[in-house]
Amino acid sequence: MRSFTVLFVAALVIGCGTPAPTPKTGESGIELELPAGFEPASATITAENLLADVSMLSGDEFEGRGPGSEGDRKARSYLAERLAEMGFEPLFDGESYEQPVEIVGLTANAPADLSFTAVGGSSVSYRFADEYMLMAGVQEPAVSVTDAEVVFVGYGIVAPEENWDDFKGVDLEGKILLMLNDDPDWEPDLFGGERKLSYGRWDYKYASAARQGAAGAIIVHTTESAGYPWTVVRASNIGEQFELVAGDEPRTRFNGWLTWEGSMALAELGDHDLEALIESARSRDFQPVPLGVTTSVDFTVDVKPNSTANVAGVLRGSDPELADEMVVLSAHHDHFGIGEPDETGDVIYNGALDNGVAMAQALAVGGAFAELPEGPRRSILVFFPAVEEQGILGSKYFSKSGVVHPGRMVTDINFELGNVWGKTSDVIIYGRGKSELDDWLTEAAKTQNRTIRGEQDVKAGWFYRSDQISFARVGVPAIWFKSGVDFIGREPGWGEKQYADWIGTKYHTPGDEVEDSWVFDGLVEDAQLAFMLAAAVADADATPTWYAGDEFEATRQAALADLAKSH
After folding, report:
1. Burial, 388: exposed, middle or buried (Cβ in 10 Å; 0-12, 13-18, 19+)?
2. In the chain, what are the domains?
3. Could you read off the pLDDT of 240-299 as tens digits, one per residue?
């Protein structure tokens, strides 16, 4: 017998030497079948192994793993070596663990000050990095925009399924569009209620402006709407920015951010009240509002073609009929490299928590699969995408490359950030309520006596902010989860404080380094939970699907239909 059943009513794991009783199911109706030898394989996921990998990958010698850097190449080589050690085969053409990804590095030499002028001649200026951010929208050595009119366009959204169009056919060719970093959320059935969808993300905003023929796009920043403070906007957008090589898609000349205070002053310059403008945008009847303000900007751009690579290895499935299907374990390998110094003078953005611990988890789970006496029925793909931090580019490239047909990928379990403060009694699913993976994970979590919850900060739109979204957009049921905030043995609120302190002081800074105070037992438990979920999906007769009516359900059906047609 190659599998045993997890009995969730009793929340027990039946050992491989114990005869399995009559299968039972939990409240969700999900019955998870786990392979023989699951428990000893799961026990190979240890704090020591996780620490070794994250310490290596976030060490100074990897120089912050900036895309296309020497540190990036060292990290990719390390990951490939680890995959080979575990017995995973090269995915790409059967001979390479790397999929080259051609990118372009863009460094905008932004002016120290950006000025806006009203019709009457009065003006306001903003300091680069402190009050405004500016990035090149085109892959060209110089950008020039002269006397371009600024137009407030609300949320900058066109969503036919919501009967929403912020542009109303207004000619915005050559304009600068000021837009809100959010989506409409004041009604439960409107754009998913408080939960931010892809419409509320900065990358959608820039692309939306480009489709209108705009010369530039500026996003109004608030910590609440973005899910992070201005310091993160600054750290994430200063210096070299990376993109996939441009195609024939429309593009703005430049993109930017403006602080809340700066945005209010800009509206006032044109005799408008920003809060009143925002209130007017809370309606399907909203029309773009010219602010009576113009700006000119000229700057050069350092354009540097470069290359990085996705890294992936596959453990082939044991079932001849299912081995072509894959369960994906993903964790991005890039970070910000060498950048602006912090108050100590440190310039290496090590990326230990973001995303060293996640890579360590993916390696640990992959290694656990390699320890099983017989491989799972479906194949296991361990995938380390490139350039996540600046647009989720590597996984986007892979998901559309055709190396693995989307219909053959049955699930993506993405690792991002992690818990380094101890065990919790809860597990957070980011984007909870989208697929049956929620139900599968709920049942698996019962074996650890843990409960499931959704993220508390739903306005941050976390599901759309890491590599799981690339898989979701081609139809693959995807999930990102990690420890919650109810830390065992700690007072209420302690967990929230740890996460908040780290986001406020270490996120996307040189301070994201391995710390002696870190505790890995919660990280181990999360990785073991991921192993259980992945093993159950890999061996199941029927795999998880998107919930009926989810935004990605139709895409999944189309992918499966396309796969069936090709055979």
Report:
1. buried
2. 36-100+309-426+461-565 (3.40.630.10), 106-303 (3.50.30.30)
3. 899 999 999 999 999 999 999 999 999 999 999 999 999 999 999 999 999 999 999 999
